[in-house]
């Protein structure tokens, strides 16, 4: 039991899927896990544990942005012994070739967040994916003929940018898409010696202006969840 998660230690698996949206966590538990049990409802930030192909897996909503997400990651790692953090999030495309509903695996996460500039004044830390989780996700996708993009993404502190052209400077450096948590998750994983990977589905395009509905963001990301569950040990 921790401040934000009212579970017993053994109720949470070593591998946890992390959607920002707690209702996506509920949908994942209902659609993909067997014998799923809700272990957390503090602040409505739902968490569930069940099995996938015989493996114990948990899924925990994190809320939006790095500060909220780091609370859950910190408690999952330090109070519940979690070893693998797999984010399953939505993202906005910065590239023409990255289309709505495409999947992006984040090899690294650039960021506008202050977490690492505060830690290393005058220097830069590069938050990166765990190589084993990355290879498992990439190999599974290839075997199943699921097309994925892999590369550098941006974890932003802002969903709504004041300057709508702000994204272009990141796009020029081949940043594939924007979301709001991965740089924090990769950093906290490195800090505690655990593994992390972010798998994202494109819900918006800054290029075409297309956007998925709230219902689609909650309940339509099956391909991404399949990759994440098959990446789990
Ligand atoms: O769909 P989730 O996982 O919440 O991720 C993305 O969606 C939220 C913004 O709508 C931010 O949390 C962003 O990172
Ligand atoms: O942070 C995010 C998440 C989804 N779509 C966006 O445009 N930005």
TrEMBL record:
<dbReference type="InterPro" id="IPR004402">
    <property type="entry name" value="DeoD-type"/>
</dbReference>
<dbReference type="GO" id="GO:0004731">
    <property type="term" value="F:purine-nucleoside phosphorylase activity"/>
</dbReference>
<keyword id="KW-0328">Glycosyltransferase</keyword>
<dbReference type="InterPro" id="IPR035994">
    <property type="entry name" value="Nucleoside_phosphorylase_sf"/>
</dbReference>
<protein>
    <recommendedName>
        <fullName>Uridine phosphorylase</fullName>
        <ecNumber>2.4.2.3</ecNumber>
    </recommendedName>
</protein>
<keyword id="KW-0808">Transferase</keyword>
<feature type="domain" description="Nucleoside phosphorylase">
    <location>
        <begin position="16"/>
        <end position="219"/>
    </location>
</feature>
<dbReference type="Pfam" id="PF01048">
    <property type="entry name" value="PNP_UDP_1"/>
</dbReference>
<dbReference type="InterPro" id="IPR000845">
    <property type="entry name" value="Nucleoside_phosphorylase_d"/>
</dbReference>
<comment type="similarity">
    <text>Belongs to the PNP/UDP phosphorylase family.</text>
</comment>
<dbReference type="InterPro" id="IPR018016">
    <property type="entry name" value="Nucleoside_phosphorylase_CS"/>
</dbReference>
């Amino acid at each position: 039991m921790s401040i934000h998660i009212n579970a017993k230690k053994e109720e949470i698996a070593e591998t946890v899927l992390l959607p920002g949206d707690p209702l996506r966590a509920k949908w994942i538990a209902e659609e993909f896990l067997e014998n799923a049990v809700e272990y957390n409802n503090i602040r409505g930030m739902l968490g569930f544990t069940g099995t996938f192909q015989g493996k114990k897996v948990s899924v925990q909503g994190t809320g939006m942005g790095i500060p909220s997400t780091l609370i859950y990651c910190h408690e999952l790692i330090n109070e519940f012994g979690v070893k693998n953090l797999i984010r399953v999030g939505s993202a906005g495309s910065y590239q023409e070739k990255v289309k709505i509903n495409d999947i992006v695996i984040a090899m690294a996460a650039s960021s506008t967040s202050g977490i690492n500039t505060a830690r290393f004044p005058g220097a830069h830390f590069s938050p990166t994916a765990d190589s084993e989780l990355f290879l498992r996700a990439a190999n599974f996708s290839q075997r199943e003929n699921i097309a994925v993009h892999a590369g550098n993404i941006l974890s932003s502190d802002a969903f709504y940018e004041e300057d709508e052209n702000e994204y272009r400077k990141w796009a020029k450096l081949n940043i594939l898409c924007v979301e709001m948590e991965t740089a924090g998750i990769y950093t906290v994983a490195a800090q505690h010696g655990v593994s992390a990977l972010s798998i994202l589905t494109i819900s918006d395009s800054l290029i075409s202006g297309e956007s998925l509905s709230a219902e689609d963001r909650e309940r339509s990301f099956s391909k991404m969840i399949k990759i994440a569950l098959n990446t789990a040990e």
